[in-house]
Amino acid sequence: MERKGFSWGVVLGLALLGFSRSVGWALNKGLSFPLLSSYTESAFVKGTILAAEGLIGLFVPVLLGYYSDTLRSKYGRRRPFIMLGGLLAGIAALMIYTAYAMGVPLWGFALALGFFYLSMHTYTAQYRALMPDTVESGQRGKASGIITLFEWAGNLFLFGLAAFLIAKAVAETGESEGIKALVQTPYLKIPFIITAIFLIGAALFVYFVIREPKAPEIDDEESLWEYLASIVKKRDFLKFYTAQTLWWMSFEFIAIFLYGILAYILKGSASQENIKAVTSLGLYLMALFNVTVLVGSLPGGMIYDKIGRRLSIILGGLVFAIPQLWGWFITSQKEIVVALGIAGIGWGILMAASYPVIGDLLTKFEREAFTGRYYGFFEATRSLPVLLAGTIGGAIVDLADDNYRILFPIGAVLVLIAMPLIWSMKELEVSGK
């Protein structure tokens, strides 16, 4: 495949796309749970609705990633999917707000969320595949660090914006419950409008500005089922995908149920009133977590190319897991802040070090023409945890008499199980690492 050396223009263009997508996912993480709490208090029902993202992401990126590898058009293999997905995702973000503002029933609001998830996953694999398509293997750690930095900066931007708007709404209305105050003001629409602008604008920018390398000629094209079977046959792919599923499930336990965790620890129960009362704090803590992810992401990308692939991933995993073990004993807001801050640094290292793995394995096995399908499966193993964490996490909380704290140690164990899988990967390292 034709590929130029490291290009700041291409990497920053991809970083902008990553920023916009993270703004979209942060909108979902930051506001969907408290808005759903207006419909139901059941952790299982809310978790199951949010888990639809995982169900959609389990299939759509795999299929569309595969077909993007085979696409031959003058507009490239990835960019048509990126433009279509970005446009639909922006429209879907506006639909979520409209559905809630119009007072549609729970099933209608859930359908709006589902359309948003489908739109976002329409171009997930293509966005991921475009980096290894355009960046040489030895430079992917640096590129991943920059892209990861922008991705989590997008989360930080949205969480910070939402927290600011809630604080402003509380001050104007005198309402103590943050999300309730936001709903009573015109400010609720602002995050959705800004998200739509970013999603549509970034997709159009990539489509019209970034140029893909010429698509390689594929002499021995594999069928969809042959591709899926090849993942099982190549043990390093299987080990990595399994490990990624485990650590993302750990992350999603916290991301999906953070408001419930905060309400339980700080107020004694995760009632609808208590969850609404901690919404503003939750958004600030999400912003804090993303700040520390930024701190970990750039060095995480650099050490990937310096100290070795396996060691950098394990370092990030351990720093992420240890604060979760402590989470079982946390009783105060200060302790929550410290734990999430440390975990964020580990998560930033882990994200920057894990993103380039699939591209490097494809280089190792001389399968670089197939980045779309393999990054499609990469995204499926990030989506499966949303499905599992939403349903299983909600069920665990219900069985534990609404004890949301239990999700901390379970998440830590999942990360620790993933680390031996990474260490046992035989083909991950490059010469001298």
From TrEMBL:
The chain crosses the membrane at residues 48-68, 80-100, 146-167, 187-210, 245-266, 281-304, 311-330, 336-362, 383-400, 406-423. The keyword RNA-binding does not apply. InterPro entries: MFS (IPR011701), MFS_dom (IPR020846), MFS_trans_sf (IPR036259). The keyword Signal does not apply. Pfam families: MFS_1 (PF07690). Residues 1-214, 244-433 form the Major facilitator superfamily (MFS) profile domain. Gene3D superfamilies: MFS general substrate transporter like domains. One of its GO terms (molecular function) is transmembrane transporter activity. Keywords: Membrane, Transmembrane, Transmembrane helix. PANTHER family: MAJOR FACILITATOR SUPERFAMILY (MFS) PROFILE DOMAIN-CONTAINING PROTEIN (PTHR23528:SF1), PTHR23528. This is Transporter. It comes from Thermococcus gorgonarius.
